[in-house]
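Sorry, can you check?
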Amino acid sequence: MLGREKWVVSEDILFYKNILSMTLSDLITMARQNLWRTRLRTLLTLIGVIIGIGALIAMVSFGIGLEKNITEKFKSNDLFTSLTISTKAINFKAGPRNRSKVEKSEATGVPLNDSLISVLQKRPEIAIAYPRINIPIRAALGSDTAATNTGSLPMVMAQQPPYNELYAGKYFSNDSALEVLVSLNFLRALGYEVRTREKINANIEVDSGLQLALADTIIGKELILLSTSLKSTSPLAIMAGIENVIGEESTPVKIVGIMKEEQFSGPSLREEIILPIQTAKSLPSLGFDRISDLMENKTKGNQYTSIYVKTKSMEDLGKIKAYLDGQKINYFAVDDGLSEMKKAFLILDSILGIIGLISLLVAGFGIVNTMLMSILERKREIGIMKAVGGKNRDIRMIFFFEAGFIGLVGALGGIALGYGLTRIANLIVNNQYIKDADEFVDLFSFPWWLVGGSIVFSIVISLLAGLYPAIRASSIHPIDALRQEG
């Protein structure tokens, strides 16, 4: 019996002497074999890491995906290369207790008229400049009517997003045509759920209060625009009654195109009905919303309330903003709020990341528990390694590799879990909540740094979790370890 014990000890000594000269690949193999010996405990620990990394990557990818979708929508609409010149600029600044406060700046010193547009069009930075003409109307399609505002576009915008890709139909034929583009939201207000033939064939559920209509049947229909205009400004007419001053005039136009639905853009970035620019100028209207606006425009010489400007690039946008500042012309540009929007997304990403991090930290305690249990079970092995010349550093390295191996495998499994969950969530949201979208909306984004960072982060957390067990293992006295039976 004594001879057999000596043989076993001799075999252990030979094995652990070889361990002291192992390469990196040998250490990885040994870590895998040691963890496999306690496969059930290792599996339970791995599940905790996988869930933690899966939750972390899914939540952060949602925040990144949301930011990407919104910024790309703005870019696709050329909002980062455009601005709106207005008679009054409104700046949103943080007031007391971080409450939003609206501050109106002084009215622009340069009248908003055709002369200013002509000057702007001659500047090398500007691609397009035209007046924005908004007229409140009632629109009638058959017996159905809805109140909305009209917008206006010149022919040059036919090649610009989002008007270069309509849901159905085509752009205007010319700047003076009695034609309009309408939005899907406006048609819903009239009681129509408009779909393309492919959407109808997909049997997507329709709101019971709406009438399903094929897009081709809407194209070419006559739309009656009912706008309010001044019939007379005579004092005698005013004294006789308001009905002698203000009247409603009808303008028949033909629907030639339907605009796509806007996703991730908040309130509509464009009007519900778009007219050719010359048609909009000739449409009967009051020309003002309030009496104060009428008086101010006459005093200041303003022909328009706002002018849309599109530059050739984002760099040119900065140049034209500097020019407008020098001329004391008020404007609003979407990119002014881009830095604030990025701050908001950074806060959102941080909150989502912290929630996922909590799960990963819980998994870290599981790694500590697994390593400590492993030390108790392998006390004899540690004693033999120290007896044959193993240093504390060698012992710590073995346990570090085991903890790191758990982190690496857990990270890879967590990435797969997180990606799988996001694909399922995408399908559910697209099929149940945004089924009317023209294209599949990916709510999540997985940049390379998120995937790589998750792997590194998981390994670092695992190594930190294995730090105390590794130090404890290296502090075991070889004599006490060899006395342990086993």
Notes: The chain has two domains: 2-72+343-483, 133-303.
